[in-house]
Amino acid sequence: MKLLVTGGAGFIGSHLSQALIDLGHSVVALDDLSTGTAKNISGLQGNSNFEFVQGSMLDEKVVRSLMKRVDGCLHLGAALGVQRILERPYESLVANTQGTEIAVKAAAELGKRFFLASTSELYGKNPQQPLTEESDRVIGSPQLVRWAYSEAKALDESVVQMFHGSHGLKFVTGRFFNTVGPRQSGAYGMVLPRFVGAAIKNEPLKVYGDGSQSRVFCHVSDAVHGVLKIFFDNKALGHAFNIGGEEEISMKALAERVIAVTKSSSTIEFVPYSKAYPAGFEETMRRVPDTTKLRTMTGWKPEFSLDAIIHDIEKYLRANS
Ligand SMILES: NC(=O)c1ccc[n+]([C@@H]2O[C@H](COP(=O)([O-])OP(=O)(O)OC[C@H]3O[C@@H](n4cnc5c(N)ncnc54)[C@H](O)[C@@H]3O)[C@@H](O)[C@H]2O)c1
């Protein structure tokens, strides 16, 4: 197939583009390089099955003309990272709502298969863990800007449903939980590249709050494998799937683990949330995925342990620093 990948020069998008090409598909990647980089796709440039278009998914004309040339679209383009959302709230909201609407509308009207990259942020601060696809959304006040990302992605999920109803859009949604690995930038608030980056320089690892908040990390190659399983499976159409790893760990324990795995002499420094983030932040204490649906329907399971993930990020950062 020929496939459009929005956000194709981003962290997950560049790995996904590579995986699609490895499977024999061809890829047109659309990216405005706002958080994505040319370096992420340097290994793909020159491949006759890869084309990069630098442009915005907010440009309806561009998106429509690219959509006409492909069989399907994997929509990963978005503004994300708590830090970035808080620093550029309106720009992020527009990218995450209008950007998706433009891509979904074009795919629906032109009859193309569609993958929507959604997020575990959708579930907000629901205390009932682990989270299944049917779990409720428990969201803070709209006066706290940090929830706008969650709201935008929830709206995106509704939009694909609506176009499924009105145009028979063939879609599948993947809700990524803390996806990590080589090429992820720590610049927008992502914790593992920040921790590993500091550890290899023997600098203090900055843990926000008291470090009791926990997450589950999934290697990007496992996440991409999950996307491929659901995108090409007709049984998956019309469904949303959690895509996430296995080991729940607190941020304090994660910092200790990173120091141990990288054999670093770093210390841990606790930073109050008020100093770590601009106003409008509220923490989510746990976020644990239940991936039974994805495993049962497709046979998917993650291959990377947390230690293997940390090693892989370390290898990448050492080679690129
Ligand atoms: N990494 C995670 O843990 C995670 C978790 C949940 C959901 N997701 C979702 O996965 C997708 C990919 O995220 P990622 O982690 O690779 O982040 P990323 O920032 O590396 O990727 C997003 C890409 O979209 C591009 N982009 C942003 N606005 C654009 C615009 N207007 N036009 C064209 N391109 C634009 C950026 O330049 C970037 O390359 C996003 O939709 C994100 O919401 C990621």
Calculate Rg over CA atoms.
19 Å
**What share of residues is helical?**
25-40%
Which spans of ≥5 residues are poorly predicted at pLDDT below 50? none
What is the end-to-end distance?
36 Å
Bound molecules: nicotinamide-adenine-dinucleotide
SSE string, helices as H and strands as E: EHEEHEHHEHEEHEEEHEEHEHHH
CATH topology of the domain at 2-181 and 218-246 and 295-302: Rossmann fold
Strands of the largest sheet, in order across it?
A: 3-2-1-4-5-6-11
Overall mean pLDDT: 96
User: CATH superfamily assignment of the domain at 2-181 and 218-246 and 295-302?
Assistant: NAD(P)-binding Rossmann-like Domain
What structural keywords apply?
40% helix, 7-stranded parallel sheet, 321 residues, alpha/beta, Rossmann fold
Helix and strand layout, with pairings?
Elements: E1 2-6, H1 11-22, E2 26-31, E3 50-54, H2 60-68, E4 72-75, H3 82-87, H4 89-110, E5 113-119, H5 148-167, E6 171-176, E7 179-180, H6 191-200, E8 205-208, E9 214-216, E10 218-219, H7 220-231, E11 240-243, E12 248-250, H8 251-261, E13 268-271, H9 273-276, H10 292-298, H11 306-320
Parallel strand pairs: 1-2, 1-4, 2-3, 4-5, 5-6, 6-11, 7-10, 8-13
Antiparallel strand pairs: 9-12
Bound molecules: nicotinamide-adenine-dinucleotide.
Descriptive overview:
With 321 residues, the chain is of the alpha/beta class. It has a domain at 2-181 and 218-246 and 295-302: NAD(P)-binding Rossmann-like Domain (Rossmann fold). Helices cover 40% and strands 17% of the residues. It has eleven helices and 13 strands. It has helices at residues 11-22, 60-68, 82-87, 89-110, 148-167, 191-200, 220-231, 251-261, 273-276, 292-298, 306-320; strands at residues 2-6, 26-31, 50-54, 72-75, 113-119, 171-176, 179-180, 205-208, 214-216, 218-219, 240-243, 248-250, 268-271. The strands form four sheets. A seven-stranded parallel β-sheet has the order 3-2-1-4-5-6-11, sandwiched between helices. Strands 7-10 form a two-stranded parallel ribbon. Helix 4 (89-110) runs parallel beside helix 5.
